[in-house]
């Protein structure tokens, strides 16, 4: 990744990974707990959230002095993200995550619940034992926002008439909050100015929206083989994403989507219905509308980099550019 060419950034991320491994050393765990934790912590995600925190910290004058603490905070934020994924997969009954069997599919839902809780408990232990107490309230508020967003999303299940505004409100918690917190806390901990902290927080917010809406679009523009997870699981479970909600507001497809939503609610959403859903969303212009929303957040985030040091701005723009879509011909 080009954004790792900044001095010591790759080394910082390696310290984050080392900190994650240090939290659950195999020799201190036993039986199934050891197996599950090795499985979860051994998965190599892209570490976007710690990366954002570390990049944001470079906009503050105290970055070098705070570097060890920042790497620990990066591990905390990644643990929160890991826990949220474990819990998400339980709710969604997802068999795959990044092409691998999820904790809930491999070990059962009960074990997955306890695993997610264990990861969250360890984040709190890290906060209070590693000199991160000043960030504790912000992290707890972020977890609260994530939970509220998940509750809001669950409350909207199978409601094809859910307003787009409600969808955006839900993902502001469940998906956006941790991006926003990572960029804000990184700069704050490094002593960044109030204006820079505010701009980076807004950057993280727009990036979080971009990230989630892109994920919604990939459900229609990609494949299970490419993304490492089944497609259209959200719709089958009654979670209607942005392309679907835009399509449901079109007179051309409103009735058909309502019918498909009812079939999903009855557990009768099979491969034929998957094809109908894809065709209806394409026909309605739902993909174009969602992509326009995504590009709005990309452009807004890009503008916020203009006041940052050039090397940091370039790294952030590199992240924005990588979050593109596959060829959408036919949409």
Describe the structure.
- By secondary structure, the chain is mainly alpha-helical.
- It has a single domain (2-322), classed as Farnesyl Diphosphate Synthase (Orthogonal Bundle), CATH 1.10.600.10.
- Helices cover 73% and strands 1% of the residues.
- It has a two-stranded antiparallel ribbon.
- A hairpin with a 2-residue loop joins strand 1 and strand 2.
- The protein is globular, with a radius of gyration of 20 Å.
- The two termini are 29 Å apart.
Summarize the structure.
The protein has 331 residues and is mainly α. The chain has helices at residues 9-23, 31-41, 48-57, 63-92, 103-107, 109-129, 133-155, 164-189, 194-221, 224-227, 233-236, 242-248, 254-265, 271-284, 286-304, 310-322, and strands at 96-97, 100-101.
SSE map:
Elements: H1 9-23, H2 31-41, H3 48-57, H4 63-92, E1 96-97, E2 100-101, H5 103-107, H6 109-129, H7 133-155, H8 164-189, H9 194-221, H10 224-227, H11 233-236, H12 242-248, H13 254-265, H14 271-284, H15 286-304, H16 310-322
Antiparallel strand pairs: 1-2
Helix pairs in contact: 1-3, 1-4, 3-4, 3-8, 4-6, 4-8, 6-7, 7-8, 8-9, 9-15, 12-14, 12-15, 13-14
Mean pLDDT: 92
Name of the CATH homologous superfamily: Farnesyl Diphosphate Synthase
The radius of gyration is 20 Å
CATH topology: Farnesyl Diphosphate Synthase
Category by helix and strand content: mainly alpha
- What's the CATH C level? Mainly Alpha
Number of H- or I-type helical stretches: 16
Number of domains: 1
Low-confidence stretches: none
Q: Please give the share of residues in helix.
A: over 70%
* Apparent shape: globular
